[in-house]
Amino acid sequence: MLKSTEKYREQERQLQKENRKKTIIQCAKDLFLSKGYTKTNMAELATQAQISRKTLYQYFSSKEEIAFELEIHAFESFVHYQKEILDKLSGNGYERLSSYFQTLINDLDSHDDFIRLTGLFDYYFLQDYPINESDRRFISLIEETSRPLVQMIRMGIDDGSLTPSLDPEQVAHTLSNAFLALTQRCLSREKHLSLEHHMDPRKMIQIQCDLFLRALKNTSKENVNEYK
Question: Is the distance from CB of 157 to CB of 139 less than 8 angstroms?
Answer without folding.
Answer: no
